[in-house]
Amino acid sequence: MYAVSDAFRTALLDSHRIASRAEVLQGGAVVRSLDVHAGGVEVDGTAAVRRRCSVELVDHTGALTPDQAGDVLTPYGNELRLFRGVVYPDGAEELVPLGVFLITDVAVRDKPEGVTLAVEGYDRARRVEGARFTSTTIVPAGINYAVAIRDLLRARVPTLEFLPADATGWSQQTTRTTPQLVFQEQADPWRAARDMAESIGRVLYFDAAGRVVMPTEPSVSTSPVAWAYVEGEDATILGLDNRWTREGVYNHVIVTGETTSATVPVRGEAYDSDPNSPTYIGGPFGDVPYFFASPLITTAGQAVEAATGILRRVSGSTELVSFPAVVNPAHEAGDVVAIVRAKSAVSDLYLLDRFNVPLGPGETMTASARRQR
């Protein structure tokens, strides 16, 4: 969850005025600041490109309506940075970033009441996806995985920002090193980097500030509770749908390496060993394995690390909840949230998978989460 003040958290629990802003970036620099008429941002932690925006911007003077390809609101490399926040009684604002989006489509809507610009965009992962390898790319053996991922991405999009920003902090996220990796011409560098991150039990994405981050897979046992959706006088949850399913749920992950140098492929396993878990491997759920093989995995320790990360994503309870709520723009996919609704027999910690952030007043957020044990 993006860091906000206590005043911001308190404001979300009560009636408050919202503030929405958009900034147009050229070459990473802000060239325009705009009002947002409508639209919003969708965040999906299960998608390769995590953030997507669809907004209507107001052009009061006509100066922003594009009439040639080099204008600021055209989809030829320009970006949109979006914010939503609260306006305090004294007029001060606290804004939360919602992402930096590569503009992919702009539609001019000329109506009697004025001109608006409908803008579609995706986070910077879409820029990396588009920068396909133009020749065979080789990562030498023995390179720290975090460094290899950073260098691979910067080779395709040199302007990317990383968190931690300093080289030492970024490289210290792992001690694992690469085998020799070969990526063919036309391959997707974002897919290559995400596969490398997954092979060391990490998840790779662009955060709300537009930076590349590589945390471990989130877990209710290790991550702090970001927000509580609890019924009562100050409730910000407005309802709940609860669904139980075993589709797409696994309790046993088996990871193997496929390196050409190893005579026997390395192997690592992780499984649900909690007897109190509904997907306990020794319980009535049975043994439901998930198999993952990758040439990026070269040691048994790395295979176990990857299996443990994958298990966090695919195991746990088969309980899925979706709910409307008061908009909390500070959320990130993977946040741990407490949800309590007595009538639905829901009272536990959940991982937030998807949510949307409307940018207009009077709208609610829709979110979905899953229980993880």
Your description of this structure?
It is a single chain. This protein has 373 residues and is mainly β. It has three domains: 6-124, Thrombin, subunit H (Beta Barrel), CATH 2.40.10; 128-213, Phage tail protein beta-alpha-beta fold, CATH 3.55.50; 252-314. Helices cover 15% and strands 39% of the residues. It contains six helices and 20 strands. The strands form four sheets. The protein has a six-stranded antiparallel barrel. Strands 8-11-10 form a three-stranded mixed sheet, with no helix packed on it. Strands 15-14-16 form a three-stranded mixed sheet, with helices on one face. A hairpin with a 4-residue loop joins strand 18 and strand 19 (346-358). Helix 3 runs antiparallel to helix 5 (189-198). The longest helix has 15 residues, at 300-314.
Q: What is the CATH architecture descriptor of the largest domain?
A: Beta Barrel
Q: What's the CATH topology label of the largest domain?
A: Thrombin, subunit H
The computed structural class is mainly beta
Number of strands: 20
Portion in helices: 10-25%
Question: Radius of gyration from the CA trace?
Answer: 22 Å
Poorly predicted segments: none
Instruction: Give the SSE order as H and E letters.
Output: HEEEEEEHEHEHEHEEEEEEEHEEEE
Give the N-to-C terminal Cα separation: 21 Å
Shape: globular
| Order of strands across the main sheet | 1-2-3-6-5-4
CATH class of the largest domain: Mainly Beta
Q: Please, how many helices?
A: 6
Quote the average pLDDT: 92
Which descriptors apply to this entry?
single chain; 373 residues; mainly beta; Thrombin, subunit H; Phage tail protein beta-alpha-beta fold; 3 domains; six-stranded antiparallel β-barrel; 6 helices; 15% helix; 39% strand; globular
